[in-house]
Amino acid sequence: MGGLATALGVAGVSPFELVAQQRGQRRGAAPADPNAPKKDPVVEYDKMAKLANNENPYGPPESVLKAMNDAWKYANRYGYPDGNIRQVIAEHHGVKPENILLSAGSGEILKVIDTTYLPAHKLFIGSDPTYDSMYNYVTQSKGQAIKIPLRKDYTADIDGMIHAAKMHSRDVGVVYLCNPNNPTGNIIPKDQVKKLLDSVPEDMTVFIDEAYHHFVDNPNYESSIKYVLEGRRVVVARTFSKIAALAGMRLGFAIASPEMVAEMQPQMIGSISSVVKWGGVAALKDSANEAKVKAITKQLRERTTAELAAYGYETIPSDANFFMVNMKTDVAPLGAKFAEKYVLVGRKFPPMDNWLRVSVGSDEEMKRFMAAFKEIMPSGKSSTSAAAAGA
Ligand SMILES: Cc1ncc(COP(=O)(O)O)c(C=O)c1O
Predict the structure, then answer these.
(1) Which of 197, 209, 235, 324 is the most exposed place for a label (fewest CB within 10 A)?
(2) Is 211 touching ligand 1 by the criterion CB < 6 Å?
């Protein structure tokens, strides 16, 4: 249940408990009957439209399932054939195996960036908001974050980041770009990434998180892997959790210079399963499935955001498998209302308190989301919308 509770941003309380509490409060009802049949949490989870964590709703394709099934025979081994995963990733991205640091999800890379390059009191520069795990790691390890607010149009303030990096150049450990950005879903245009890299001191580490790279369809975007090859102090992180639908299997990697890989390597736990290594190899080979997921995600994102616009709700243009919609009211109480309708939506991302992050699920899930949205939220075209939504 922890995952569901976390999805709602309410540690230790499941959506079902929240929904039950809400029902009781609203009706002033007596506490729930202790003899009532208990709901099976697994069945309940399976029924949910899971639009809270930017996952791939379709799951891995046959090719990947088969590769993973064939690898179960290595479940009892420490040393085993691994499909040459490092080599395969390197070839796929036009780099050398020495440039690849394999990890248990890209989350491990984020953590290792922190332990390697952000000793206590070093500064970390990122957008606000951006993927907050990075800020959590930095705070836990007593580093300090300089959060640069997004601009009025919710894009990254690259000039602001450059200014902060130059002002504190001696104390900065890492500058973080999340491209596309989570939670806003928009890209940092290629000229802006280049401007930042050309402007900050050469020896400053710039960490570029490309978790949502595969969903982007925008001529102003490019991957930053080329900067690693140029010899810059850049680390790029990628994951198999999103387009490759392997979030529950845990596989990611960093691309960096061999020197930086060697700096980070000692901090790695090395807890990647034999099964997912074979799954990762197969996923990289199945470009047809990747293209299919990208296309359907874009189509469903555009359909849903158009429906929201027609209903009077603004969204931030997204290039990822999620988007943000302006609810015109604090989103905190809305998670439980959606959960009651079997839809899990994103948590709150301060300071964007009125913006709800919604992952792009399957066709059926997005229809369910829109139906729930219209039941929970008044039409945004009516003048009383904000007041009614807060009721
Ligand atoms: C921007 C970003 N980076 C990294 C991650 C970590 O994902 P994983 O550890 O599953 O690769 C996520 C997960 O949602 C993310 O949104």
Answers:
(1) 197
(2) yes
The domain ranges of the chain are: 2-59+288-390, 62-286
Per-residue pLDDT tens over the stretch 338-364: 999 999 999 999 999 999 999 999 999
Instruction: Choose the residue to mutate in 109, 127, 137, 182 for probing ligand 1, maximizing ligand atoms within 8 Å of C-beta.
Output: 182
Identity (one letter) of the amino acid at 320? A
Residue 21 CB contacts under 8 Å (≥ 6 apart), including other chains:
13
Query: How is domain 62-286 classified at the CATH fold level?
Result: Aspartate Aminotransferase; domain 2 (3.40.640)
The minimum-distance atom of ligand 1 relative to the CA of 109 is 9
The answer to whether the CB of 106 is under 6 A from ligand 1 is yes
Sign of CA dihedral 344, 349, 355, 361: negative
CATH architecture of the domain with range 2-59+288-390: Alpha-Beta Complex (3.90)
Tens digits of per-residue pLDDT, 219-232? 999 999 999 999 99
Ligand 1 contacts CB of residue 105 (under 6 A) = yes
Tens digit of pLDDT for each residue in 150-166? 999 999 999 999 999 99
